[in-house]
Amino acid sequence: MPFQDHIQAAPEASPGDRLRASPAWALLVLVVGLLFTAELARREWRAAQHRAEVMQQSLADAAQARAQAPLDAAAQALRAMQTVFLSNDHMDQALFAQYQANLRTRERVPGLVAVVFARRDPAAGARGHVGYRYEFAAPLRGNEMLVGLDIATQPRNLVALHRARDADAPSISAPFPLLQFSGGADAARGVTVRLPVYSRGPSPLTLEQRRAREIGALAISLRLEPMLRQALHGRILDHLHVHIRDLGAEPGQDEMFATAPVPAAGGALQVRRVDFGGRRWELTTWPRSAAVDTARLQLIVATGIAISVLLSLLLLSQATTHRRAVELGRRMYARFGESEARFRVLNELLPALVLLADARDGRIAYANQVARERLGRVAGTPLVSLFANPLLGGQAMAEATTGGTWASQEALVLAADGEAFWASASLAQVEVDGAPYLLMVASDTSEQRELTERLRYQAAHDGLTELCNRREFERRLQEALELRQGRADAAPFALLYIDLDQFKLINDVSGHMAGDQLLVQLVHAMRARLRPGDLLARLGGDEFGLLAFDVDAAQALALAEGLRQCIEGVMFVWQERTYAVSASIGMVMVDRDGCTLKDLLAWADSACYQAKESGRNRVCTYREDEDTSRRRSEMEWANRLRWALEQDRLLLDYQEVVPLVPAPDGAIHIELLLRLREEDGTVFLPGAFIPAAERYGLMPLVDRWVIRTAVSSFARLHPCGDALRTCAINLSGASIEDEGLADFILDTIEEFEVPAARICLEITETVAVRNLLRVVRVIERLRAAGCRIALDDFGAGMSSFGYLKNLPVDVIKIDGSFVRDLGSDPMSRAIVNAVAQIGHQRGLKVVAEWVDGEHTLAVLRELGVDYGQGFVLHRPQRVLFQRPDDPRRRVA
């Protein structure tokens, strides 16, 4: 219901109502309302001042950090080039420029004018100093006048150069007019950041080494005005005036950057220091004229006054006649509902861009304060001219003028400086004073879009090398596969899987920082060998992938071999060590339909593994043959074993080791046997998955799981419980090579308080002979703690009996192949007899494996063998705590 109609429909006031609505009451309500509004305004003013002070301090801190950021970026770029010289001090102008392009120094360092190298020349100095003449510059264009310039002619720069050389730390010059620019204006003033260059080799650590190995100096010249303006761009310069000066420079030469003269000292001034390269900058900030945001204050005052006046007028209106109240209501309705001035006051307070254009000619009639600040003077210009795409602007106006609404659309809008920014805009037709207008409301979304693009880039790229990551690489590979489907003329392409050899050694010896630096250096080298359109990605720690399009098998092989040679040619220097790097590369040609993403990755991984298995530092092409099928089967088993370890689906069986002459104490001895249970309940013997575990390096994990599981549940392995005398556990060759194995075994025994003498660790003869010195060290530590050691499968490795003299073991287990043929093969009988005799002579216990018949038992007793193990004596059974009927069993 309109305001006028509402007043006309109001009932007649009673005499009591008229008394209460007297002018005195109206005046009282007005006074109270104004006082209340004043109090709210006072509190809002204090809050606005506090917010302004907090924002100024925060922006001053941000200005300090952002003013130093370009200097830090320049120092990092110089440090990277210093590392390049340490690995290769034979440099020319083309190579120097190429390194700068690869490092993307111009993108990383705002205000950069040139990156230069000055070579030390003892015979070319001026004024008795050693000469330093600039030899290389990047970019060379525009900096030609620097080549040949001697730093020794500039005493202050020479002092800074010597300071950087002696400390191996960046130094910075005082502000000075840049030689590349004429006129001496402030816009052409700059500073120079320097870092020494040493000859090839490890980094020098002492002052004498640095002076002796100095071959020159690197420098980056920076133009102050664009460097600092870009660093401080945004909210800092929008809200603050900034003045920066060099405290160590001469008077009159110390000012470096200023948006306005520094005012007299006051509480609004914020002073910060920037210390870098031996110099100190003073950064002074103070708020611009509109330091305190009074928008909310104005809104509170306007709203409070309006409400107070309206309430008082309402009370006053009740003291007049019904006719005057209706007339007053109509006037207020007309004044507040149709006044263009009220419309402008309201929209001036909005933080969005608000524009009003005449729908008849499309020209802008009104723009609020935000629109004027961002777009400039646009009154009288066509609304469509604000759109960077005139076709989109015309379409928006057409939709709005036909009665529709063009709402929440992304569009590029032209700012006052001619640059475009993204905005979310809406356009609709409204009526003002009976005339049609187009109302446009837009909000700047440039920062949100930039943030979204940055997040999208980070999600698809590796943070260290800035290459595509595994997810993005697999997405691009899937796209390439889909483009090939159903196309007979599709060009083939190649998938390369690159795995660095012995990369873990560099991380272990020199640390992960060295490994990261090596990866960056290798990526720069590999990028230089790629063709346009090739996609290089980092798939993991030291694994890379490459998609090479439009190549046949010969071209792909040549590309892969070139990458291998490129990697092999990189000599990586870190501190006092030099490393040679190589890579194993697996290649798959995608030249037929039917390949899936999973197939290609598995084939490439298989080919890479074949390259490593063949001796590393080579390229292997995937071929579907028996060995490849076997490797793929082993890869599948390796994955199934990893899942079994994570889901606790490994099982243990025990088989008793029985004395062939009954012992009076009745002691029980067992050997643990490993099993794997699939998710469907199927149980597999170790012969199915142990080869895969050995090939893919999973045996140390498996062995540690068995050791900890057995020791932690020692009393629940066998029905005899704590009476179990010994439990034998097999150790793989990979576990023996684990430096921490002995510590792990002894710590586990101590943690669960199991006597060490009850643990027997079995090592195969082939492993013992292959790693004799390492095995002896591990065995001696374990035996010293009380553990028993058994030499398993003795005789299978065809080793000399002389090894028994060097191996400190307690038990010899004769390989089952000799025991099985004991009754029919005289040679097997002779070997078993010899092992038993030699073992007893050394005081060792002798165990025969694979005992499967009573006749074999009789022969073993005759030969004096101590123990037997086989189906005729005891069939393997599940350990007690993993049986379904054990209430204390762990959940598998």
From TrEMBL:
Residues 634-890 form the EAL domain. CDD domains: EAL, GGDEF. The chain crosses the membrane at residues 24-41, 297-316. It is found in: Membrane. Signal peptide: none annotated. Residues 491-624 form the GGDEF domain. Keywords: Membrane, Transmembrane, Transmembrane helix. This is EAL domain-containing protein. It comes from Pseudoxanthomonas kaohsiungensis.
